[in-house]
């Protein structure tokens, strides 16, 4: 028995799918302690949009620590906090004509969601919140109450109340008009639905199965919320910071949420950090009414500001993400067309992509086959039926192509299908590695 199985709780999950000990990582590559290389299409569940140990951000972090700068500061004013806020305002908010105040709720995404729900109830004086089928918003009780997954909800140990689920976009496969149920309940005084304080939504449901809402659906939702004086919360924890192309995933729809939750990649380096962005008129907190010890981890402010300046002062990363996402979409659509008998479904936006299988067993088997070939990816969806990829936005074209070829080989192996273009799709890891090292020689670990 090793120390992990001896001392660590049975609640661990990712280590069961990838039973190796990882030691080093850079860019889109991870290495186990034996030196074996893995291409990472998981990236900390979307917390590493700019890759592992991004060299530009690492330099900022090391310089910050070497200069004995403030590390922990609660909500005291610091030069690092000021630099981050000024950069967020100048690089992200003002160019998008967004007027938000910033709440630092704590280090994780669930903290951002809890702050959003708490504030919505305080502002409106109402208790209930509407969420959507297959949503995932976090593991704390408030966030869990607006989460759909039955396994995760079952771990609460207490009733999860004050939340009402509604059908997400295309939940009924287009058989009914958008919001026919939600709108009818809101307008019928006999429906029994209390007017909610807020609606919380993901524009792309990551853990729910890479379900991407249409821009028109999001616009209708925003209009419905405005019509009934309901606050709109967008949970952009996994899909923000450029995952779908634009910095915010809701930009494509042209909507302006009342509250936005950010975490995961906002620090740029994998340092725990979260934000809840709120319209100024919603800022009704009393001093200290919502706080936490780890609201001021200044190294995260430093790397976050550097990431915003480096990657969001122009459209280069945005355009690259959209282009690479289209490349993945093309491969996944090819799988769907090539194997119609297996009823595969390609899903997603940007570099949040999924391939849905008829069962969770098949999707899991594909991920395991890919792991054996040196690729990390996970499953999602209510039954784990979706093979999900979240590669770094900075992934090279060579690495992306290599990963897609591994997925191709893994899908065929699990489905028992021959390769129709063996000469084009045979995975040559040595050649790929040589190409990668030539392209990124200065970043290859010693």
UniProtKB/TrEMBL annotation:
Q: Where is this region: Disordered?
A: 417-446
Cofactor names from the entry are: pyridoxal 5'-phosphate
Q: Where is the composition biased (Basic and acidic residues)?
A: 418-446
Cleavable signal peptide: none
Please give the pathway this protein is involved in: Amine and polyamine biosynthesis; ectoine biosynthesis; L-ectoine from L-aspartate 4-semialdehyde: step 1/3
What Pfam families has UniProt attached to this entry? Aminotran_3
Q: Does the keyword Cell membrane apply?
A: no
Question: Keyword Transmembrane, does the record have it?
Answer: no
Write out the similarity annotation: Belongs to the class-III pyridoxal-phosphate-dependent aminotransferase family.
Protein name as catalogued: Diaminobutyrate--2-oxoglutarate transaminase
Q: Which organism is it from?
A: Microbacterium murale
């Amino acid at each position: 028995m090793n120390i992990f199985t001896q001392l660590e709780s049975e609640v661990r999950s990712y280590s069961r799918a990838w039973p190796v000990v990882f030691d080093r990582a850079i860019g889109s590559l991870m290495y186990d302690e034996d030196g074996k290389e893995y291409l990472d299409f998981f990236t900390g569940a979307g917390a590493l949009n700019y890759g592992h140990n991004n060299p530009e951000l690492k330099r900022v972090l090391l310089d910050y620590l070497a200069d004995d700068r403030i590390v922990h500061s609660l909500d005291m004013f610091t030069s690092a906090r000021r630099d981050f806020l000024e950069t967020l305002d100048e690089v992200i908010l003002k160019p998008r004509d967004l007027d938000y105040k910033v709440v630092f709720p704590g280090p994780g995404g669930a903290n951002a969601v809890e702050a959003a729900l708490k504030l919505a109830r305080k502002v409106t004086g109402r208790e209930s919140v509407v969420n959507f089928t297959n949503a995932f918003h976090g593991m704390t009780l408030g966030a869990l109450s607006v989460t759909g997954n039955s396994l995760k909800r079952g771990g609460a140990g207490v009733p999860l109340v004050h939340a009402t689920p509604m059908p997400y976009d295309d939940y009924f496969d287009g058989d009914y008009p958008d919001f026919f149920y939600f709108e009818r309940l809101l307008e019928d005084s006999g429906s029994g639905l209390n007017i909610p304080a807020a609606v919380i939504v993901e524009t792309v449901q990551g853990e729910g199965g890479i379900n991407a809402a249409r821009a028109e659906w999001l616009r209708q939702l925003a209009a419905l919320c405005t019509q009934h004086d309901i606050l709109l919360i967008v949970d952009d924890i996994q899909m923000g910071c450029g995952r779908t192309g634009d910095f915010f995933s809701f930009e494509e729809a042209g909507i302006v949420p009342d509250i936005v939750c950010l975490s995961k990649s906002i620090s740029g380096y994998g340092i725990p950090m979260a934000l809840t962005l709120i319209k100024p008129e919603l800022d009704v907190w009393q001093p200290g009414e919502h706080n936490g010890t780890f609201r001021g981890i200044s190294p995260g402010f430093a790397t976050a500001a550097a990431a915003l300046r480096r990657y969001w002062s122009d459209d280069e990363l945005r355009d690259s993400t959209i282009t690479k996402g289209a490349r993945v979409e093309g491969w996944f659509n090819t799988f769907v067309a090539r194997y119609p008998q297996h009823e595969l479904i390609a899903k997603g936006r940007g570099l949040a992509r999924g391939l849905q299988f008829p069962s969770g067993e098949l999707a899991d088997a594909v991920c395991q086959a890919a792991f054996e070939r040196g690729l990390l990816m996970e499953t999602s969806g209510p039954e784990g039926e979706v093979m999900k990829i979240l590669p770094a936005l900075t992934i090279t074209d060579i690495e992306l192509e290599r990963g897609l070829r591994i997925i191709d080989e893994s899908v065929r192996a699990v489905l028992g299908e021959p390769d129709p273009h063996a000469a084009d799709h045979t995975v040559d890891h040595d050649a790929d590695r040589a190409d990668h090292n030539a392209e990124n020689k200065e970043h290859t670990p010693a």
